[in-house]
């Protein structure tokens, strides 16, 4: 790792697991469940929590209200469409928060204007202007999201953004709502906005990426490189369709190269695994075995060459220390790809010392067993040891 003498730029992590993440089909949460998850998010060092959509149901209103009252060390975000009733509900639900923002969204792409909003561009600019002005009477920090921004032409996008800045929006979140952008496109869009939008140098910028092409983390990193200081994420990447930018992947991409990137987050990485497990359990969403960072296989090694290297020095095949993520230890999986060194190591972990001859004989029998089935468990290994090496088990 390079050494860095200047201070890193702080990237603020905005968690929307309880709002956008909850929009994943089947992921709906009860208020008590949201409160438990929000406590864990706060413990993990999240900067801003978006706990729900207050107008959407009495339960969501209550969850946002209770989280605002209880979690005084975290900024709470009230989510709203650009309509007065939504803004009123978001303002009311978050009024006891120690610090808060209102996050207002309104579509900007032609396809959304024509088929969803059924409004003209002029009407959209007027709505955005009027509703940001309305919300600004109650809350100072106003985040504005032009929905489907990455499929909106620059000219109209800039017009909307200039209008909301003039009314007092303080954070511009420019979402890739349908997960369409490529990293270089998404980064370039932020650069153009920062350079060309009137007042664009007076506000903060936020990225919000969906994962339809598997690029949500890459796009968020490109946005950071383009100067964004807030990134919107969800735990385990849950969210609409293919989900949102995954918190754990983004944070660890930064963590593993924070000196060379010159940025850092305030996330307590040792809470990442607990948080991931909790969200998966409560939402009833299993985590894919091969999911980066938190998947079952993320720190397991089966190939003999890898196991051998790992036993000599973990850095040969691991770029992160699983213990720093709250994951108990990296595991060597014994299967047909495992070598003698790994077998000897695992048997040694059970306090069993084998002679070279005994190890040869165990290795042959182990390979036969591994060919019959995909993995050899510790119990099966001990049976093999017992039947191979008389007296060693006592
Ligand atoms: O994906 C999206 O556009 C959103 C916004 C409303 C921010 O979730
Ligand atoms: Zn979204």
UniProtKB/TrEMBL annotation:
Keywords: Acyltransferase, Amino-acid biosynthesis, Branched-chain amino acid biosynthesis, Leucine biosynthesis, Manganese, Metal-binding, Transferase. Residues 11-273 form the Pyruvate carboxyltransferase domain. The keyword Acyltransferase applies. GO terms for molecular function: 2-isopropylmalate synthase activity. The keyword Transcription does not apply. Its EC number is 2.3.3.13. Belongs to the alpha-IPM synthase/homocitrate synthase family. LeuA type 1 subfamily. This is 2-isopropylmalate synthase. The chain holds residues 1 to 394 of 525 of the full protein.
